[in-house]
Design brief:
With 371 residues, the protein is of the alpha/beta class. It is 40% helix and 15% strand. Bound molecules: pyridoxal-5'-phosphate. The site of pyridoxal-5'-phosphate has 13 residues, from helix 5.
């Protein structure tokens, strides 16, 4: 083959997919391993969503509803928007892609932070846009630095709020001040994948941010069913935005971008307050307990506005990650992000948390870190 590929595609580093659990278990000679690495929902999925999926299985020979009519209605109603202000994606990942496709031409600039959710920069690269990447400041988005980097070519600013992987959030006051200083020609994308886990006083009013944008930037709020609603595997997320912005995203999306099962599952999960509350409460309690236990071992923990948190294990995080695998516990090392002694873990069920603590205690001792 002698087909040329653009340089900006060649330079993309593929997203490193995790190995399937079965493969990892074979490789490390373990069984019944637990995964606390991907900020998923430890309590499974909403039983109502599973029931809705079961009922929809007889209709798989039909294409899904391309307008996502009932899911859009359910979201609009729940959050006080109109249907033309809601866009559904095959995961909120896909809405990130729509935004970049619609608004970023070649050489258009997009501002993101590092570390933050990796998809933003990747999608911009695919498009041939320019990533302007600002390091976090004290683990938070550097809002002043971002403002200083806005130019006439800036199209989008991505802020994951809370941030993944640091679990920090922007205080509402700081966010409002920031937004009021971003020019009208820019869209700020507030990625609220973990909003459900935030302290109520840290949450912002998406409705007023989107509706009251006179004289300043536009705002798009992204949310997902992958975390608090437990539907990561079926891929569904949504964006709230001005109807004009939504109209452009609809132009770049595929006609059947969200599958039928995802649509019915998301509607059912949205109405399943029992499962939702169980998730939030379990996360809160699990996080408190985990923090106490890891601190007893001499590690330090970082504050979190999410269902995951960072732990300084006072030794090489990559070696600990490897040692934990042999114990059948999958965590995330933050070494690739420049935090060499830090791991990230997602809160699990009581049983999983207990196993994590036992394994951590064992590995810290084995590696001669703090225990
Ligand atoms: C900050 C952030 N945004 C978006 C996503 C992706 O969500 P979805 O599963 O809806 O694509 C994640 C997933 O981990 C995330 O951490």
């Amino acid at each position: 083959m002698k087909i040329e590929v653009p340089e900006y595609i060649k330079s993309i580093v593929p997203y490193p997919p995790g190995k399937p659990m079965d493969e990892l278990e074979r490789e490390y000679g373990v069984s019944n391993s637990i995964k606390l690495a991907s900020n998923e929902n430890a309590w499974g999925s909403s039983p109502k969503a599973i029931e809705a999926i079961r009922e929809a299985l007889t209709n798989l020979h039909r294409y899904p509803d391309g307008s996502n009519y009932y899911l859009v209605q359910a979201i609009a109603e729940k959050f006080g928007f109109t249907a033309d202000e809601v866009v559904i994606g095959n995961g909120s990942d896909e809405i990130i892609e729509f935004l970049v496709k619609a608004y970023v031409e070649k050489d258009g600039e997009v501002i993101t932070s590092h570390p933050s959710f990796l998809m933003y920069q990747k999608v911009v690269q695919v498009r041939g846009g320019v990533n302007k990447i600002l390091p976090l400041k004290d683990m938070h988005h550097d809002l002043e630095g971002i403002l200083e980097n806005v130019t006439d070519n800036t199209r989008l600013i991505f802020l994951d709020n809370p941030n993944n992987p640091t679990a920090t959030a922007i205080s509402p006051g700081d966010l409002y001040t920031f937004l009021s200083n971003v020019p009208e020609s820019v869209i700020v994308v507030l990625d609220e994948a973990y909003v459900d886990f935030m302290d109520p006083e840290m949450q912002v009013d998406a409705y007023s941010l989107i509706r009251n944008s006179k004289g300043r930037c536009g705002v798009v709020v992204l949310r997902t069913f992958s975390k608090a609603y437990g539907l990561a595997g079926i891929r569904v997320g949504y964006g709230l935005m001005a109807s004009e912005v939504a109209s452009y995203l609809h132009r770049v999306r595929q006609p059947f971008n969200v599958n039928q099962l995802a649509q019915v599952a998301a509607i059912a999960a949205l109405g399943d307050t029992e499962f939702y509350e169980k998730t939030l409460q379990g996360t809160r309690e699990g996080m408190l307990w985990l923090r106490k236990e890891v601190e007893k071992m001499g590690c330090t923990t970082y504050p979190s506005q999410t269902n995951f948190f960072l732990i300084n294990v006072k030794g090489d995080a990559a070696a600990l990650y490897e040692a934990m695998l042999y114990q059948g516990v999958i965590i995330r090392s933050m070494k690739p992000y420049g935090f060499s002694n830090v791991i990230r873990i997602t809160v699990g069920t009581d049983e999983e948390n207990y196993r994590f603590i036992r394994a951590l205690d064992h590995c810290l001792g084995e590696l001669g870190y703090v225990s």
